[in-house]
Write a structure and sequence with these properties.
By secondary structure, the chain is an all-beta fold. Helices cover 0% and strands 39% of the residues. The two termini are 28 Å apart. The structure holds beta-L-arabinofuranose. The site of beta-L-arabinofuranose has 12 residues, from strand 3 and strand 17. Keywords: Carbohydrate metabolism, Glycosidase, Hydrolase, Polysaccharide degradation, Signal, Xylan degradation.
């Protein structure tokens, strides 16, 4: 592949139209970018979207991705390298279908790729694969992480070295089917009734070996400013999928997608387990059904990686982008209008 690098800051095309940012890669479709800085370089762990010809539905069956490519760049705005296939679904012994949004971590000389995929019973679980290189190839563990569920793993390591995995997504992500603690394949509800509390994402501390959970998975509460849990009907604020945790000035920022209302929003707290109090919108809707993001610092600047459908105009063929994230003096963000 010969990837095309693209400028990330606002530029004007020949018609004078302003673009906030351009697709980072144009020769394959990529989405759900989890960005990390390892050894001074930016590595992006995205989904690799492909055309499968499957009809669109609310379960996202048409998102039938089969492998991961890892991207890297020395700096935002610089050349982007596509490192080719880092993990293929055929090399994951327990996988059935749909390799969705991954994340990565580095500890004790090893790189860990965390990925959601449906098992052979069609239940989303989170798997882990390891490599000595940030770009792979990655070798998958023989089984999913015990106790893992749903989609969209996001891994955060705190200052004390403890690492936490956030996970979950409703509708196609199956989180609602775990409401009772065990998986209920017959739950067709998609989410709780409008007057009930919205489902929270899940979190668990990882063991020292980064391959298993050190504790039972728990639900993360997202509250309004009066301290009340957000309701299921509160669709512009409630958690849908795509959680991400970062820390800034000692505060924990949990950001996520509201899914069917197409926003990226954030909530803050004083513990990695939450509760988190809803604060506001980071990014207004992009072109496409929804976006999925990550937040990372490089050389004192903060960036948000996300996706839209600029290249294809099809919700299932997405392209990753990046733009600078601007903070406000009160600890919030300037809302991005992509
Ligand atoms: O890429 C498949 C799914 O779409 C992800 O897991 C969600 O976050 C959404 O972006």
């Amino acid at each position: 592949a010969t990837p095309e690098a693209a400028a990330s800051t606002a530029t004007a095309d020949t018609t004078g139209k302003k673009y906030l940012s351009k697709p980072l890669l144009k020769d394959i479709y990529t989405a759900d970018p989890s960005a990390h800085v390892f050894n001074g370089k930016i590595y992006i762990y995205p989904s690799h979207d492909i055309e499968t010809g499957m009809p669109e539905n609310d379960n996202g069956d048409h998102f039938a991705m089969r492998d991961y490519h890892i991207l890297s760049m020395d700096s935002v705005g610089g050349a982007v390298t596509d490192h080719g296939v880092a993990l293929d679904i055929k090399d994951i012994p327990w996988a059935g279908r749909q390799l969705w949004a991954p994340d990565a971590a580095f500890k004790n000389g090893t790189y860990y790729l965390y990925f959601p995929v449906k098992d052979k019973q069609d239940v989303f679980r989170i798997g882990v694969a390891t490599s000595t290189s940030p770009t792979g190839p990655f070798k998958a563990q023989p089984k999913p992480i015990e106790g893992s569920l749903s989609i969209d793993p996001a891994v955060f390591t705190d200052a004390d070295g403890s690492t936490y995995m956030y996970m979950g997504g409703i509708w196609g992500g199956q989180l609602h089917r775990w409401r009772t603690g065990s998986y209920n394949a017959n739950d067709k509800s998609q989410e709780p009734a409008p007057t009930e509390q919205a489902l929270g994402p899940r979190v668990a501390k990882l063991s020292g070996n980064m391959l298993s959970f050190a504790e039972p998975v728990r639900e993360v509460k997202i509250l309004d400013k009066e301290g009340k849990p957000l309701l299921s009907s509160d669709t512009k604020r409630r958690f849908f999928e795509g959680g991400w945790l970062h820390k800034y000035n000692g505060k924990y920022y949990f950001s996520y997608s509201t899914g069917d209302t197409h926003l990226l929003v954030y909530a803050t707290g004083t513990s990695p387990y939450g509760p988190f109090t809803y604060q506001g919108v980071i990014m207004n809707p992009v072109q496409g059904w929804t976006t999925h993001h990550s937040i990372v610092e490089k050389n004192g600047k903060w960036y948000i990686f996300y996706h839209d459908t600029e290249l294809s105009n099809k919700t299932w063929l997405r392209n990753v982008k990046v733009t600078e994230l601007k903070r406000t003096p009160d600890g919030g963000f300037e809302t991005i209008n992509p």
